[in-house]
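User: tokens in, sequence out, please.
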């Protein structure tokens, strides 16, 4: 995955002052921040924001949320912490300042990748989209940023509406107001969006055939960000409910984007859901896997129980974000996540992502960083025949200094051949 420079710098004051200004003004107006100067005040951030960032980071980074819920002391899981934290306003402030921008960027990076590979909007009329488990409208804002800060546009409608589905009413109210300011104050100079919102305060029940009421409309775009990892039912059950939901409520040529944590357990759970979805689609593949896999092959990361699959993207952080990182001894210069993009329609993957048309069937995506060892660049690739350790022999001093490709890149025609326990890559042409 490659993120455009325009997107990677969009949230940093060194390149673009407006994001932090809009955040500060919005939070002051929402009475969550005493004044705009507090946004970069170490005294204020250390007292009112840092404790919640640390606690939320601990919860989000546990391998099993059930361990947190079973803990004898302290808040019993995220829901309880959300409801009974010592200062709910500061808790929401901490989430908004620290987790909202990074999760927004992850969604934007995925949309950026679709555009880089040539995806273009096919449906006519106003946009109908849904942000499921929206929090502060993270998915909606992420799509807007991905579109606005790309070098190419999808041609998606600038008018339409988003259904925001969220179980926390205060966060839902905050998100509904935030995306209005985000569009008008931050994106207006780049992309004149006029998307409206329809907020729905709802707890999702998994004892029904679908996730939405039967009379709900169909949507062109469906985003679920950090939602499935909190669902306890099996991947098979979840795949069945998701497919029935999308069959009823996803338009032809519609896109589904799922974003989940990069942690081993949650990432493998997403891969298991993908596997179950493909098995249930085997007789009628009305949905297609676009990203990151570029096809319906068996998942190479599921072959070994200790393996998993995730992406990692770099960005220039907001200045206040850097301050929180330093105080918390965290480092969010790069953002890991797991994701899956699905497409409903009869078009082939190459028609949906036309940059793939000139690539060979042997195309492969790098799923690890590249490192140099004994004249060879080594990395892992995943393709139609699974996941392999790969080597590419540097043929010059210049090639020894710079990796031929980076994590997330797609090799177009690698002319690979299997040697011993690895794949020999003879040619490196990257797509996009």
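Assistant: Sequence out:
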């Amino acid at each position: 995955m490659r993120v455009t420079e325009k997107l990677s710098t969009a949230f940093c004051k060194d390149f673009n002052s407006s994001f932090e200004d809009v955040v500060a003004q919005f939070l002051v107006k929402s009475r969550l921040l005493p004044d705009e100067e507090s946004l970069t005040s170490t005294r204020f951030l250390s007292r009112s924001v840092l404790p919640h960032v640390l606690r939320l980071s601990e919860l989000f980074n546990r391998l099993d949320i059930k361990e947190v819920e079973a803990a004898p002391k302290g808040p019993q899981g995220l829901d309880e912490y959300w409801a009974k934290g010592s200062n709910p306003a500061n808790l929401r402030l901490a989430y908004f300042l620290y987790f909202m921008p990074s999760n927004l960027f992850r969604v934007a990076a995925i949309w950026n990748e679709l555009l880089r590979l040539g995806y273009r909007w096919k449906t006519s009329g106003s946009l109908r989209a849904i942000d499921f488990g929206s929090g502060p409208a993270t998915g909606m804002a992420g799509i807007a940023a991905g579109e606005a800060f790309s070098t190419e546009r999808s041609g998606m409608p600038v008018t339409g509406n988003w259904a925001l589905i969220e179980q926390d009413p205060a966060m839902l109210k905050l998100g509904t107001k935030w995306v209005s300011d985000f569009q008008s104050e931050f994106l207006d100079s780049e992309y004149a969006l006029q998307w409206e919102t329809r907020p729905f305060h709802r707890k999702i029940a998994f004892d029904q055939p679908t996730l939405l009421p039967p009379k709900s409309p169909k949507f062109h775009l469906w985003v679920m960000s950090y939602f499935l990892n909190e669902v306890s039912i099996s991947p098979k059950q979840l795949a069945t409910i998701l497919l029935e939901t999308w069959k009823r409520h996803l338009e032809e040529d519609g896109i589904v984007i799922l974003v989940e944590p990069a942690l081993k357990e949650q990432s493998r759970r997403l891969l298991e859901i993908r596997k179950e979805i493909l098995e249930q689609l085997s007789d009628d593949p009305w949905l297609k896997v676009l990203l990151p896999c570029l096809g319906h092959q068996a998942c190479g990361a599921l072959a070994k129980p200790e393996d998993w699959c995730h992406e990692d993207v770099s960005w220039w952080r907001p200045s206040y974000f850097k301050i929180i990182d330093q105080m918390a001894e965290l480092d969010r210069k790069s953002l890991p996540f797991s994701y899956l993009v699905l497409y409903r329609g009869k078009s082939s993957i190459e028609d949906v992502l036309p940059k793939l048309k000139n690539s060979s069937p042997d195309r492969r995506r790098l799923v690890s960083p590249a490192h140099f060892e004994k004249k060879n660049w080594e990395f892992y690739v995943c393709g139609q025949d699974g996941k392999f350790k790969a080597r590419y022999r540097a043929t010059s001093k210049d090639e020894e200094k710079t990796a031929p490709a980076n994590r997330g890149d797609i090799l177009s025609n690698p002319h690979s051949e299997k040697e011993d326990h690895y794949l020999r890559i003879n040619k490196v042409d990257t797509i996009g």
